[in-house]
Recover the amino acids of this structure.
């Protein structure tokens, strides 16, 4: 069970339980923000560390363009690119897919 599944189960209304989380007003909004941030951070952490499984080696256009303009440019000293998949909600690929 993922962190998102756990919290989504507890945030949904159930017939047998009193909706105490939903009666909190601004405190419930604060709680929802506080559980969304680490959940999103865990998802971004997984995407960052599983780039080979997401087949991001196909997106090597940046390396090709950089190598054509400057021969002294070392891409390994700059850092590495993390490609967000289209399944990541809010990313640029997701926005293009929806548009």
């Amino acid at each position: 069970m993922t962190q998102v599944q756990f919290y989504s189960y507890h945030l949904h209304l159930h017939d047998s339980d009193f909706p105490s989380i939903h009666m909190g007003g601004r405190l419930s909004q604060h709680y929802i923000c506080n559980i969304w941030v680490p959940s999103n951070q865990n998802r971004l952490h997984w995407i960052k560390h599983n780039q080979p499984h997401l087949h991001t080696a196909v997106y090597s256009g940046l390396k090709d363009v950089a190598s054509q303009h400057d021969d002294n440019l070392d891409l390994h000293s700059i850092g590495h690119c993390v490609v967000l998949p289209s399944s990541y909600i809010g990313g640029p690929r997701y926005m293009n897919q929806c548009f």
Notes: The chain has two domains: 1-49, 51-99. The chain has a mean pLDDT of 80.
